Amino acid sequence: MGGESFDEHVVMWWNFIGRSHDGIVRLREEWNEAPDRFGRVKGYRGGESRLAAAAA
Known about the structure:
By secondary structure, the protein is an alpha+beta fold. The protein has one helix and two strands.
């Protein structure tokens, strides 16, 4: 978007940003298995408690 480039490699997938593919895999697993780690949206009234992260 602007500014200086990062000095390290950044991996982006879905809603996650990490430093490696393995880091993204861990984040995806945590998202799907431990919903409290990422918090909840107060007042959300949808049918699903959260969208599952798709397999990469």
